[in-house]
Write a structure and sequence with these properties.
By secondary structure, this protein is an alpha+beta fold. It is built from five helices and nine strands. Strand 7, helix 4 and strand 8 form a beta-alpha-beta unit. Helix 2 packs parallel to helix 4. The protein is globular.
């Protein structure tokens, strides 16, 4: 059983995040999915197929860390396990956001398969916890897209157990996953990533 008051706070944070992300064009139509931790065994997560710019309390449900609905007849996203695996790997994580921005999608397709995105020399790298200077390299893995979500959840979980300081990853031609201890942290990460993705794409355009 989960605490209803904590669920309500988590649902409110998801609804507010949806409005913010949709207005910036990072979660078009019914794409994307968002979640927030309720306790050690449950998360609140968006119901599948809901418009992210028009979310209400009825568009958020509860699942356990195996991705099973709790006290709900609704269906969460097919990508729910990509959320719950992050809560399993990182017990301190309080929120996970998955967005479908144009820049994240295009940039992930331009990188050579197997090549991570490396961000270096940007002052805004300091938006991520633990980064104290632009004189550092932030490595963002890019996983190939697949409809086998259980396999991808296993792959990402294994990778992040070995790289616990990473704040996000890309799925090729699909979008961004990022997380934080709070929803505010998570939204800051999403905003910082979008700025950095735009810088990388603009740099590619300017290179001869």
């Amino acid at each position: 059983m989960f605490d209803v008051t904590r669920y309500a706070r988590a649902a409110d944070s998801i609804v507010e995040a949806g409005s913010f992300l949709y207005q910036r064009g990072w979660s078009p139509a019914t794409s994307s999915n968002y979640s927030a931790r309720i306790d050690g065994e449950h998360i609140a997560i968006t119901v599948s197929g809901r418009h992210k710019g028009q979310l209400g309390a009825g568009d958020v449900m509860v699942v356990d860390l195996a991705g099973r609905p709790v006290q709900s007849n609704c269906r969460s996203s097919a990508e729910t396990r990509l959320h719950t695996i992050l809560y399993e790997v990182f017990p301190e994580v309080g929120a996970v956001l998955h967005t479908h921005s144009v820049k994240a999608t295009v940039l992930s397709r331009l990188l050579t398969p197997g090549q991570p995105l490396e961000l270096e020399g940007y002052e805004l790298q300091k938006a991520f916890a633990g980064v104290e200077t632009h004189e550092s390299v932030l490595t963002i893995p890019v996983f190939d897209n697949t409809q086998d979500i259980d396999a991808l959840a296993q792959e990402t979980g294994d990778w992040f157990r070995g790289h616990p300081d990473q704040p996000g990853y890309l799925i090729r031609g699909h979008g961004l996953y990022t997380w934080g201890n709070t929803m505010a942290d998570c939204l800051r990460h999403a905003e910082a990533f979008e700025f950095l993705f735009e810088c990388e794409l603009e740099t590619m355009r300017m290179r001869p």
